[in-house]
Design brief:
The complex is a heterodimer of chains A (about 270) and B (about 500). With about 270 residues, chain A is of the alpha/beta class. Chain A is built from ten helices and ten strands. Chain A has a single domain, classed as Rossmann fold, CATH 3.40.50.300. In chain A, the strands form two sheets. In chain A, strands 6-7-8-3-9-10 form a six-stranded mixed β-sheet. Chain A is globular. Chain B is of the alpha/beta class and about 500 residues long. Chain B is built from 21 helices and ten strands. Chain B has a five-stranded mixed β-sheet. A three-stranded antiparallel β-sheet of chain B has the order 3-10-4, sandwiched between helices. The radius of gyration of chain B is 27 Å and the shape is elongated. Classes of the chains: A alpha/beta (about 270), B alpha/beta (about 500). At the A-B interface, α2 and α4 of A face α6 and α7 of B.
């Protein structure tokens, strides 16, 4: 392990007991080993049920490993107190999970409050500005916000405790495409500005390619590819990875072809008149 | 409805006692239900057992549940000592709290089961400890639902608390039970009105708190809480008056005669400078037990009742022997002092219209035997199953043409309307005060005697001054005087009296 490694999966496993008819055991994550360097933006990509979410939740122990280890800053996460570990790790997920009975400001300040500190209003305003929301929104209740605004608050809440690591589990999955792209880009910018280490789970390879600087591909509980976006686009990473890359590429090619034919028709119409 | 409003205004004591009892029971219910609900939300088997138990409790009629705590607490005296109260506030509190459990528990468990899993994941994700998750997220989000459960429980409890009268706890049930027995409808209505009014007010206030919690309006739930707290504080104030050790507690059963005699005894003691309190409308067995363990000091009981229910005897040794045996048994077994007989019986007897009896030449059960096969006899629904009936049938070889059942209230109407030629009656019944009916004599003593006896608790039996004040009552009330007093309470016309006034009139008549 190098000094730059923040997160280290060491043969991490998660198995569940299942009825004998289903083989007696379900392997969600079957022995993943990899290191994630400080400052990197890693996307964890795979189909539903490939184990990517489970692997992510093993980091903040929402899911306990049933074998192997997960090291965070060199320490086995299972030896840390869950509450103090989770306060050092920002967590954003598709369900957003804003506390409906707390104002936006209180939601953002919850992490520090749990640790016994009061987050100053100035800092809440700053965090809201970071996620491109009006600081006045701190006084609103979550149900007064749109879905996109809520997830921005979710990101602000994850950043409030100055985390060393930001975990995101399908963070933009429930948002409309426009909101989704805008928020994705903003998160990438924040990653740079705040010098974060980010691990993002997504089933959308296009999102992974556009935002991350390293893409891990999972299939049936195993890591099957570990490439940069550039090399994935260049055809590396194997069959599963390439089948995932093929989806946005095909879409892009079809769109390009449509644009071409529209342009050609317009051209021929112009020529005819 | 003569005197409804006046009566209502006299219910202050009962109302405050009712509020304190209901609030304590609900509070106790909450104290048990909420931790149980938290546990149940984390364990399927706890949820099943807890909800199953609470539902089971709910199937027991409230009256039975209240009565059940008497023997339960009595047996617990082996553990907690003789000072454990078996009647009054404690058993009422326990029974009502058990009753309040189900709605609170069920709503709390349901509320927790229906919390948004995303919110719960977020609570874990931001690093809440189990306790923080419970207090900061689960409790506030479940609060409106739990409040709805508390609201249901409160309305039930306030209603059921009226039944605690039967185990000697003062409540708004006192006027209801007393009114039902003495056919004083103003009293019944006032009690129902006060209890229903209390339930409505509490429901409205708790509803305000519930809506305030749901809308997260601090004003609304804070205001509701403040109003509830204020009402409770006002009800609590009178409870702190010094509980005088020297106060003599007089118990009564659930019929007019018993209410009148309790008042008579109370007035006699007050005249002699004693402070008295009443526990009215108790069940017969409960009252007997209460005197034995000195939670009630004085009652009037009947030889036949004690003979059958307490001594568990079914023979009939004759009037004097039965009384003497009871005096001996009480002294040895319960420590209760039987101070003496009041002078009248409230026994089973047969009544006929005076004109019918004269026509047939009947004055006793013996005379009735030859004509019985042409006559119809009426009895209350249980009478023809009772040993008294069987004993008469066997002693005299009595065979009637027909037996008919009537409810006790309509027994005399049946006789009046010649639906029955003879009926079962109680010898001190007020309706026998009129000249219209006669009671048949029982020369073979087939019917057991029911002499009214003055029962004094072990505690009071050491108080010579009190016993001296009570002695003038012994042998002082003949059956005509008692019938007249009963009639003045049971009648429904303008001459109707309260048991208190009837007792005063009775005292004057017998020269106390």
């Amino acid at each position: 392990m190098t000094s730059q490694t923040l997160l280290h999966f060491d043969a991490a496993q998660r198995r569940y007991d299942a009825p004998a008819s289903q083989g007696g055991e379900v392997v969600a994550v079957g022995g993943v080993t990899c290191e994630i360097a400080k400052g990197s933006f890693v996307a964890l990509v795979g189909a539903s049920g490939s184990g990517k979410s489970t692997l992510l939740k093993m980091v903040n122990t929402l899911v306990a490993p049933s074998g192997g280890r997960v090291l965070f800053g060199g320490e086995d996460v299972t030896t840390l107190k869950p509450s103090s570990l989770r306060r050092r790790v920002g967590y954003v997920f598709q369900g957003i999970g804003l506390f409906p009975h707390m104002r936006v400001g209180e939601n953002i300040a919850i992490g520090p409050r749990l640790a016994g500190e009061k987050l100053p209003d100035r800092r809440v305003a700053e965090l809201l500005t970071l996620v491109e929301l009006d600081p006045d929104m701190a006084a609103r209740m979550p149900d007064e916000l749109s879905g996109g605004q809520r997830q921005r608050v979710g990101v602000a809440r994850a950043l409030a405790g100055d985390p060393e690591l930001l975990l995101m589990d399908e963070p933009f999955g429930a948002l409309d495409p426009g909101t989704r792209d805008a928020l994705g880009e903003r998160v990438r910018e924040l990653h740079e500005e705040l010098g974060l280490t980010t691990v993002m789970v997504t089933h959308d390879m296009a999102e992974a390619l556009l935002l991350a600087d390293r893409v891990l591909v999972m299939d049936a509980g195993h890591l099957v590819a570990d490439e940069t976006p550039r090399s994935l686009l260049a055809g590396k990473g194997g069959e599963v990875a390439q089948s995932l890359v093929a989806v946005p590429r095909d879409q892009a090619e079809k769109l390009a072809a449509m644009e071409e034919s529209i342009a050609a028709k317009a051209l021929s119409k112009g020529a005819a008149s | 409805m003569n005197g409804f409003w006046e009566t209502l205004l006299t219910l202050g004591d009962k109302l405050t006692a009712h509020i304190v009892l209901s609030a304590s029971a609900i509070g106790f219910g909450i104290l048990v239900a909420l931790p149980l609900a938290v546990w149940a939300a984390r364990s399927q088997s706890v949820a099943r057992v807890a909800l199953g138990f609470a539902s089971l409790v709910q199937t027991i009629p409230a009256l039975a549940l209240l009565a059940l705590f008497f023997p339960v607490l009595l047996s617990l005296r082996a553990v907690f000592g003789e000072d454990l109260p078996t009647l009054g506030f404690l058993p009422a509190l326990l029974a009502l709290a058990l009753y309040a459990l189900l709605p609170i528990l069920r709503n709390a468990v349901t509320a927790q089961a229906n919390l948004d899993p995303g919110v719960l994941e977020a609570a874990d994700g931001v690093g809440m400890t189990g306790w923080q998750k419970l207090t900061l997220v689960e409790a506030p989000l479940s609060a409106p639902f739990i409040m709805a459960g508390i609201r249901t429980a409160s309305v039930w409890t306030i209603g059921a608390a009226t039944l605690s009268t039967t185990i000697g706890q003062p409540s708004l049930g006192d006027p209801i039970f007393a009114g039902l027995q003495t056919q004083n409808w103003a009293l019944v209505l006032a009690g129902c009105f006060a209890s229903a009014g209390l339930a409505l007010v509490v429901d409205a206030l708790l509803g305000l708190i519930e809506r305030g919690l749901a809308r997260r309006s601090k004003w609304q739930w804070g205001g509701g809480m403040a109003a509830v707290a204020l009402g409770l504080a006002l009800a609590l104030v009178p409870q702190f008056k010094a509980d005088d050790e020297n106060t003599i507690i007089i118990g009564s059963k659930q019929f007019s005669e018993s209410y009148i005699l309790a008042q008579l005894i109370g007035q006699q003691l007050e005249k002699n400078g004693f402070d008295v309190e009443y526990r009215t409308g108790l069940g017969s067995a409960v009252l007997h037990g209460a005197v034995s363990n000195s939670s009630v000091d004085i009652s009037v009981d009947y030889t036949g009742t004690v003979w059958t229910n307490e001594l568990k005897r079914d023979d009939n040794p004759g009037r004097e022997a039965m009384f003497e045996e009871i005096v001996r048994w009480e002294a040895e077994e319960t420590g209760t002092l039987v101070l003496g007989r009041l002078g009248f019986e409230n026994a089973y007897a047969f009544a006929m219209r005076r004109d019918t009896a004269a026509e047939l030449g009947v004055t006793s059960l013996e005379d009735l035997v030859p004509v019985a096969p042409t006559l119809v006899v009426g009895g209350d629904p249980e009478f023809f199953e009772r040993p008294e009936w069987i004993s008469v049938r066997e002693a005299y070889g009595m065979r009637f043409k027909e037996t008919r059942n009537f409810s006790p209230t309509f027994m005399f109407n049946a006789l009046q309307a010649r639906e029955a030629d003879a009926i079962s009656a109680y010898s001190s019944d007020g309706r026998l005060a009129a000249d219209t009916y006669i009671l048949l004599e029982d020369p073979k003593e087939a019917l057991p005697s029911y002499d009214a006896m003055l029962m004094v608790s072990p505690r009071l039996s050491e108080n010579e001054a009190a016993l001296d004040a009570l002695r003038p009552l012994v042998g002082a009330i003949d059956v005509d005087a008692m019938r007249a007093a009963n009639y003045s309470v049971d009648r429904t016309d303008d001459g109707k009296m309260s048991p208190e006034d009837a007792a005063r009139a009775l005292a004057a008549q017998i020269g106390l």
